[in-house]
Specification:
about 375 residues; alpha+beta; MetI-like fold; three-stranded antiparallel sheet; two-stranded antiparallel ribbon
Length: about 375
């Protein structure tokens, strides 16, 4: 006969407050909305949270571009053409100096016919913060000259060097972020408008509407994207203004990107339209527009948001590629793709490698969007 198992009873006194707190926590979990549970799951994805913070900083910076950039967009330093990056120092031979750079001396190399720059340790140029510098029109509202960081009086501060016209690459990269990041947001808005409208109609109504939408999507997806981008971009008149070219390019990117989203929306609505809540709304007299907008689309809105974060990087890369090929944005508009046009000359890149620095924010932004999109997609998945 087996021994009886001992019955253990906790000697700790019963605390009803702990039970109530546990019950409240369970109730908070079970009564939470879809968006709140999505936020809780996203917070556990540390890489996605870090990527989201990077994107937040990038997009917030476009509102204060003029304040962050040390120099004006078109400011030229003819005495410092193709100047190398100036390293920031804190200590000199005399001890702690605070943030400063060494002034640059140059001489013309008669053998290579280029300027050879050397830092002069006797010329310590302390950096200034929250200082007066180049004047600018802040959002065309008022004139200002306040900058986050400025070079010393009579000195220079080329954090990432200068280009062939003596323009500061760091400042131009900051200005270029405003255009490159905005292209993705405007393009995805156009893509979502077309994708949700066409895909929603095809998925809900079916029949000939679905057939026409599907055949149109198949035709567009059968055309290689890069030649299509190049053909549509080349069709834009050369006499268009910079702002017209910008909106033309965003419309092109939006028109090319919507088929994938429309197909995903169609397949989802085909399944959801057979649900009881959709049938009940139709029996109560709700029109198809209201059923799609108020009952069907919100059921997978989290998936659409995740899809948007994964589609924006492709549009940024498309703008960069088209501008690099000379078919996208053109000067005086400044974007990361326009800045990379300087890197088309491989001989110049071999001698002045800092001309490739505008590729860094493109890589960082695309990786941040991909990491954030992956985390958001996992958080939006109700089965995880």
């Amino acid at each position: 006969m087996s021994d009886k198992l001992e019955h253990f009873v906790s000697p700790d006194p019963f605390n009803p407050q702990e039970v109530e707190e546990l019950s409240a926590e369970q109730e908070r979990f079970y009564m939470a909305s879809q968006w709140r549970m999505m936020w809780w799951r996203l917070k556990r994805h540390k890489i996605a949270v870090a990527a989201g913070a990077v994107l937040a900083v990038l997009y917030l910076s476009i509102f204060i571009t003029e304040f962050i950039a040390p120099y004006d967009l078109l400011n030229r330093h003819t005495d410092h053409i193709f100047a190398p990056p100036q390293q920031i120092h804190l200590f000199s031979d005399n001890g702690f100096e605070g943030p400063f750079v060494y002034g640059l001396d140059y001489k013309l190399n008669l053998e290579t016919l280029r300027r050879d720059y050397t830092p002069n340790p006797n010329r310590i140029q302390k950096l200034r913060f929250f200082c007066s510098g180049d004047k600018y029109e802040f959002w065309n509202l008022f004139e200002a000259d306040l900058h986050l960081i400025c070079p010393a009086d009579g000195g220079t501060f080329f954090f990432l060097g200068t280009d062939r016209l003596g323009r500061d690459i760091w400042s131009r990269m900051i200005y270029g972020a405003r255009i490159s990041l905005t292209v993705g947001m405007v393009g995805i808005a156009i893509s979502f408008l077309l994708g949700l409208t066409i895909g929603g109609a095809a998925g809900y109504f079916g029949g000939w509407v679905d057939n026409v939408a599907q055949r149109t999507i198949e035709i567009l997806r059968s055309i290689p994207e890069l030649p299509l981008w190049m053909g549509l971009s080349a069709a834009m008149p050369e006499d268009w203004s910079a702002i017209t070219v910008f909106f033309g390019l965003t419309i092109i990117l939006g028109l090319v990107d919507w088929p994938g989203l429309a197909r995903a929306v169609r397949s989802k609505l085909l399944a959801l339209r057979e649900e009881d809540f959709c049938t009940a709304a139709a029996l109560m007299g709700a029109p198809p527009k209201r059923i799609i907008a108020r009952h069907l689309l919100p059921n997978f809105m989290s998936h659409l948001i995740a899809s948007a974060t994964l589609s924006i990087p492709s549009m940024i890369l498309a703008e960069t590629a088209l501008s690099f090929l000379g078919l996208g944005l053109r000067p005086p508009v400044t974007s990361w793709g326009v800045l990379l046009v300087e890197a088309q000359n491989f001989q110049a890149v071999a001698v002045y490698p800092w001309l490739l620095f505008p590729a860094i924010p493109v890589i960082v932004t695309v990786l941040a969007f991909n990491f954030f999109g992956d985390g958001l997609r996992d958080a939006a998945d109700p089965y995880k």
